[in-house]
Amino acid sequence: MAVVPLDSRQASITRLLLSEARPSTVEAIASELKLTGRIVRYNLPSIDTYLRPEGLRVMRRRGVGVWVSGNDDRRHAILSTLGSVAGPRVLDGNDRKLQVLAALLDASPQPVHIADLEEALGASRPTVRRDVRAAEAWLEGHHLHLQRLPGVGIAVRGSEIDIRKGLLSLVLEAVPAEQLLSEMERPHDLHAEAADTRGLADFAARLDLPRHRKILSEQLLQPDDNVPMAMVTTLYLAIVSRRVRAGRQAEMQSGQLRSLVDHPVAAAAGRIAAAVEAQAGLALGDADVAAITEFLLGFVELVDASLTSQADDQAVIDQLVAEAAARLHPSLAEDGQLRRSLGEHLRRLRVRLRYGLPVSNPLDHEVRERYPDVYRVASEIVAALHPIGDAVVPHEEVGFLTMYLAGSLERNRLRPKVRITVVCPAGMATAWILVSRLSAEFPNVEITRVVSKSAYEEELAGASSDLVVSTVPLDEQPAGVEFVVVSPLLREKDLRRLARFLGEPAH
After folding, report:
1. Which residue in 21, 28, 211, 331 is deepest, having the highest Cβ count within 10 Å?
2. What is the CATH number of domain 93-158?
3. By three-state DSSP, how is residue 447 classified?
4. Is the pLDDT confidence value at 28 over 60?
5. How far apart are CA 379 and CA 370, in angstroms?
6. Spatial separation of the C-alpha atoms in residues 252 and 250, rounded to whole Å
7. Cα separation of the two ends of the chain
């Protein structure tokens, strides 16, 4: 009589029983394998049927537990061959959801019939429908959505760029980093199935990661580079190749495409694309080269925050915080969150400098206008920093440092004082109205002097202030000092203009 092979769940229970020299409770087995006690008890008779021809028995005794009895040599022999038993796979709920997502994303934009999912997962239609609903919430969180086509199937809709990012996120979520790194390191001409086929390991094994790692090592990375960026970039390039080979080219608007193609990083992306064509026989179009460029520009956001710190990182952070505390507010020195944020940013900055990737801060102009005082201090601090390694700190870092410092000041309500000179006509009544309004609307101002227009122009005394606020235009202004003309009553448009220098008003 032929013995029905064990399914993957039964094989896991059997492996655990054969590995234990002593009896174990059903609850302990269930806990170890993340199953329920009912499922373990349900599968014990099938396991006993499988083991009996080998002279082994599954024993159960109340108050003692469950164990396998029989010859130890037969026990070890079965244990060594158990992984190769060709039984059906049984997936838990999370595994099934991952497999559903992989199947739908990999097929997109083509639909997948639910019957095909039933066969692939070995699950009933109601179970597969529940898994699809669970997968739908995941897709929505990645800017993708499901379209149900009656009589045809289910399809993932979204841009090709988002499909690729979705596959990338899915693999990173499902496959351990050590397993991905191991897969990348095997010889690229050696075909091998993944040792662990749970989750998406089998999908990752079909991506030809060794070949793409070799391409990146030749064109961008260091050969022995195992930082998370190297793993993520390899995985992304392999996904791009798989999608293009299946006829799924990226699409971009002409303006975005032109901007990326003209970017300096596009040269590195072009070399990578040429290597893919030479070594994998796959031609990448302009939009796909632009997509790789965009990924290289943004990959720092995907790098694990636990990147290794350099020996002098803490010294650099201490210098940054000390300078900021001395120039802006002493309490900055005690802000632990500021130090942690700067530390993480510094680690990411080292990666960008190491690989020659440009720094881009789309909020730089807005930050400069909103926090001019903090921006000025950040400029002085960055200028005083020594080079990091062999690279000079890029000027764009001024905007990032301003954001961290301003965030700390706002978070702790520590806005630094802005020194203001108030200028008025000969009569001083309007000046004191303006002083009162300024102090009420902007508590962070420090009125250093109130002078008449003629006295100010004669002495040009505003050089000791950060900002000159006047109720009348001036004929002469000192260099390097910001100047704003306002109504003494500070109307709405005046408040908006002053907010560029002083932050949002209090009322």
Report:
1. 211
2. 1.10.10.10
3. strand
4. yes
5. 15
6. 7
7. 87
3-state DSSP percent of the chain in helix, strand and coil, to 5 = 60, 10, 30
Q: Give me the half-sphere count of Cα atoms (radius 13 Å) on the Cβ side of residue 84.
A: 5
Q: What is the pTM of this model?
A: 0.47
State which amino acid sits at residue 50. Y
Q: Do domains 8-84 and 93-158 have the same CATH topology?
A: yes
Q: Which residue has the higher pLDDT, 457 or 351?
A: 457
Percentage above 70 pLDDT, the chain: 78
User: What is the CATH code for 8-84?
Assistant: 1.10.10.10
Separation CA 385–CA 173 (nearest Å)? 38
Task: Let me know if domain 418-502 sits in CATH 3.40.50.2300.
Answer: yes
Residue pLDDT, tens place only, 416-441: 667 888 888 765 667 778 888 888 88
Say if residue 492 is exposed, middle or buried (CB neighbours under 10 Å; 0-12, 13-18, 19+).
Answer: exposed
Contact between 357 and 322 under an 8 Å Cβ cutoff? The reply is no
CA angle 173, 178, 179 (to 5 degrees): 75
HSE value, Cβ hemisphere, 13 Å, CA-based, for 149 = 12
Is residue 193 very low, low, confident or very high in pLDDT (cuts 50, 70, 90)?
A: very low
Domain ranges of the chain: 8-84, 93-158, 163-302, 313-411, 418-502
